[in-house]
């Protein structure tokens, strides 16, 4: 395939400029996104233990509910039965006094029965560290209101798509002969350029999916309003997110229709949807009647959300009344949309796919970092050839931002992991956010104050030290165990990243150039 040289150069320029504009946002999105693939296990692991008796058997759940409703009648309006025993250790039944939906953590109360059958309640504290990292991923690192940040994220995703397309066109002519060629003897810059291109080409399908789905998420309200108009016009828009219905104000009178016991609900569900593994039963009073949403998964099918799908059941009969978001039972149109979402969340194929997404996420962050470093080195070389002995203001500005933003992101996330076990409730959202952005601001500010070589090496070294401090800090903390699966996985990742950063600080990625005078 032959493309004119001037066209190729135009696409290379577009790829470079659009890439450097979006790369700093995308680095944060991919680095935090890789970690957020493990959001739920990280949240459970970092959260303080709940002091409750062992979960009652499911068969005794009606007894537990009766005692809860007697002491806490408001719980009738919105309560959840946790089915899996390991998750139920934090409460077989949980409820929230909050009304409606809220963005952010919602206070809950959990309950169990002691050996004598007496009600024991607790207010479990949930670490917000993993949730903050997920929001950081969604908002491409911007500390803005969520709606505003999502619009910016949508623009960044569009630039990301343009950079992908222009990069493929620009390097397509030489792809066939250089696909597996990494120039070992051609200097550091050429080696990194070859590796950058190789990594970009082989992860291209993943990046295309991320770019397209990110645009959808940024403008999801408009898109899903259209979806429900076209696919399911009788259902209210917004159901895609699985919001809980607005509970009605508490009334003392019982529900007009009796609710089946949990065991009967599960038996009815198994008959209708064999293979679906239910995880929670969420009951909500809506317009004087109870509604039931069952969340769960089916390993044979993709999930619409990051970790689960759901179905709406009639709580008095156990009959499925809506399976639009139930894996394996969706209408064709909804199943197609679910596949699209599952490709972004990695919610298919089990744990190995999720770990594959972790690797691809870190690889994507590395791709954006090397892209900016390559551009800085190339620009500096051109400036030296033109007779300039000092970096121009634009080169220095981008180098300071690249070093401060990328390594500040790594150091900030590492810092909140180090601190979480020692913060209230395993890290409340406000304190975690303040710590991250403080570290991030220090890195960015020092990037502009210190000479570029000094700042870059210092940032690499400090980020590496903080990252290596994570397993040490977590090993000392009494509530976190490095011997658990998530603890061991986190230790392995942090050791690899930490030593890589320390090694890079000894030989930072800079071309051999004349002194800057």
UniProtKB/TrEMBL annotation:
UniProt KW Ligase keyword: no
Q: What is one Pfam family matched by this protein?
A: PepSY_TM
Q: Where are the transmembrane segments?
A: 17-38, 149-172, 198-219, 355-376, 397-422, 434-451, 458-476, 482-504
Q: Tell me which UniProt keywords the record has, alphabetically.
A: Membrane, Transmembrane, Transmembrane helix
User: Coiled-coil regions in this chain?
Assistant: none
Endoplasmic reticulum among keywords: no
Matching entries from InterPro entries are given as: PepSY-ass_TM (IPR005625)
Q: Which PANTHER family match?
A: IRON-REGULATED INNER MEMBRANE PROTEIN, IRON-REGULATED INNER MEMBRANE PROTEIN-RELATED
Protein name, please? PepSY-associated TM helix domain-containing protein
Which species does the entry assign this protein to?
A: Brytella acorum
């Amino acid at each position: 395939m032959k493309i004119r040289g001037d066209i190729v150069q135009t696409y290379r320029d577009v790829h470079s400029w659009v890439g450097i504009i979006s790369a700093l946002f995308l680095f944060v999105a991919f680095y935090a996104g890789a970690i957020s693939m493990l959001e739920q296990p990280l949240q459970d692991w970092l959260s303080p233990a709940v002091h409750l008796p062992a979960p009652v058997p499911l068969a005794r759940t009606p007894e537990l509910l009766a005692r809860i409703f007697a002491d806490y009648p408001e719980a009738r309006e919105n309560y959840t039965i946790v089915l899996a025993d390991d998750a139920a250790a934090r409460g077989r039944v949980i409820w929230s006094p909050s009304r409606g939906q809220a963005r952010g953590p919602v206070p809950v109360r959990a309950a169990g029965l002691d050996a004598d059958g007496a009600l024991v309640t607790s207010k479990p504290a949930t670490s917000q560290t993993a949730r903050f990292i997920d929001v950081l991923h969604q908002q491409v690192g911007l500390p803005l209101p969520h709606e505003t940040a999502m619009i910016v994220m949508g623009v960044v995703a569009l630039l990301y798509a343009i950079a992908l397309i222009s990069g493929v066109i620009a390097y397509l002519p030489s792809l066939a002969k250089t696909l597996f060629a990494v120039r070992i003897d051609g200097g550091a810059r050429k080696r990194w350029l070859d590796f950058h291109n190789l990594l970009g080409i082989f992860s291209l399908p993943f990046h295309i999916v991320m770019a397209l789905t990110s645009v959808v998420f940024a403008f999801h309200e408009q898109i899903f309003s259209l979806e429900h108009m076209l696919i399911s016009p009788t259902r209210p828009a917004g159901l895609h997110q699985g919001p809980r219905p607005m509970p009605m104000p508490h009334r003392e009178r019982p529900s007009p229709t009796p609710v089946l016991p949990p065991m009967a609900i599960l038996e009815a569900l198994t008959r209708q949807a064999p293979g679906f593994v239910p995880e929670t039963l969420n009951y909500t009073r809506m317009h004087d009647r109870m509604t039931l949403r069952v969340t769960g998964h089916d390993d044979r099918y993709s999930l619409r959300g990051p970790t689960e799908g759901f179905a709406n059941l009639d709580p008095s009969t156990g009959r499925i009344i809506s399976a639009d978001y139930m894996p394996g039972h969706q209408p064709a149109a909804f199943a197609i949309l679910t596949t699209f979402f599952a490709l972004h969340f990695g919610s298919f194929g089990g744990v190995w796919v999720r770990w594959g997404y972790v690797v691809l996420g870190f690889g994507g962050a590395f791709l954006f970092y090397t892209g900016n470093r390559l551009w800085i080195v190339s620009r500096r070389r051109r400036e030296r050839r033109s007779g300039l002995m000092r970096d121009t203001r634009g080169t220095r500005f981008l180098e300071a931002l690249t070093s401060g933003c990328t390594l500040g992101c790594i150091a900030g996330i590492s810092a909140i992991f180090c601190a979480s076990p020692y913060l209230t409730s395993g890290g409340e959202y406000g304190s975690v956010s303040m710590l991250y952005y403080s570290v991030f601001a220090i890195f960015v500010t020092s990037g502009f104050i210190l000479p570029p070589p000094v700042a870059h090496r210092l940032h690499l070294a400090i980020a590496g030290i903080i990252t290596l401090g994570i397993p040490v800090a977590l090993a000392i903390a009494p509530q976190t165990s490095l011997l658990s699966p998530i603890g061991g996985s986190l230790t392995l990742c942090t050791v690899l990243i930490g030593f890589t950063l320390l090694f890079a600080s000894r030989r930072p990625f800079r071309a051999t150039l004349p002194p800057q005078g």
